[in-house]
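Hi V.,

You were right to ask for the full record rather than a summary. Here it is.
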Amino acid sequence: MKKAPFERYAVLYLPWILSLLFASSPQASYLIAWLGSFFIFYLTLSGWVKPLPHDLSMAEQLMRPILLVQIIFAGYTCCTSIFFYLNVLGYQDFHKISKYYLIDYELLEHTAQCQRYYCLGHAAFVTGILASMRYPVQKKYYIEHEKVANLLFAAAIISFPVSIIFQKVPGLTQFSNQFSSLSFIAGTLALAFAIPQHKIWNTLICIILYVFNFYQALISGYKEPIIISVMVLGIFLYPTYKRLVTVIFVPLLLAIFMLLPTYNRIFRQNAWAEDVNADEASQLALDAALGKGGSDDDSNWGFLTYRLSEIEMFNDFVKSTPDKIDFYGFQLLKQSAIAVVPRIFWPGKPITEDLVMERVYDAGVVYRGSNVSAKPAYIVDTYLSGGTLGVFIGMLIYGIVAQVISQNAEKLFGGYVLGTALIFSGLFQIMWRGLSFEFLINSVFWAYISMLLIHRLLLATHTLKKI
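Predicted structure:
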């Protein structure tokens, strides 16, 4: 794969530079930065900056970092802020509240500033991915093609009880999350393989696994698992059933986005605040989401404005750092090194949640003693560590790490299906959205160890063979 000329990488940063030039006009600056992310999507997904891998068709490589990870990470981080921005301007449900609405110009300026950081971060992120992209991957191992479907089926069945075992062992619960995610990805991928191959029993068992995982997503109280459950199945089925997936899954995802705010609000209200059991809370939430009418509280606008996007929280951090609290420098990385040590080896290790929440309290995002978790996003931590330069370096490294891990997975597991679609998407799913430094670095480090151990196991059982 040829290297992209430097000038093409430089074009990725034009929206950010242009938004800086218009910084004195917050509305123009925000819109330039926001639209800049769509410009970056176009330049990268069209192959203009650097040609997309041609070893597989587009439909067969959707889980690679330049495609799925970029779309989810940058789409969620950079594009969802538009609703908060409109809210700042006095809009609700896309209608102006009043022509006499007084705009908070300080909030508007900070919102535009945060969006500029998002735009810069997006450009640096894809720079890291594209600069590290080397396809086709030189494979060192292979698995016989006819065994792939059975291996995926076995991985789905085995990894689920393994996740339960880790859940029971104090200090190893992070591995439970890894293998639970791996089981879901393996089961969904196995289902996508079993349907066109007409393997009835495999299909039935995989459907049961999928339904179980979807149910767990419904009673989790979080929006991401529900969306991911549907989206991943659609992506895996897309290469075989392009038209059917487009007709069914696109409207289905849109419907989920419409119904999810009400469902989540009612579920949390009952299961978390009123101690109703999960099954009953889920049924009440479904009834409310599918019911007609509803109060103003049922509106999606609050969800779109404050919960779909995290720019409001970013605003609070930008207001306090560096004016009231200095940049953290390498402190967050040092705390991440502490988090990497498993609690089973260090029972007295500081609680990671407490370490993260300290900077949340210091910035005044939430008050000390409040029963709220408000962990900053990865890009926020890059800003807190070093401002503009921190965002650029942190997001560049993020893109490089995602791409290198995906390529190494394909090298170790004989190609895209087992490497990226199964292992990378299963063990490293946290990289789809990112999280605070401490949680992300800890998860990625131990997921990489898990990947190497699984590779050794497959070699020892002669499932994988050297070329």
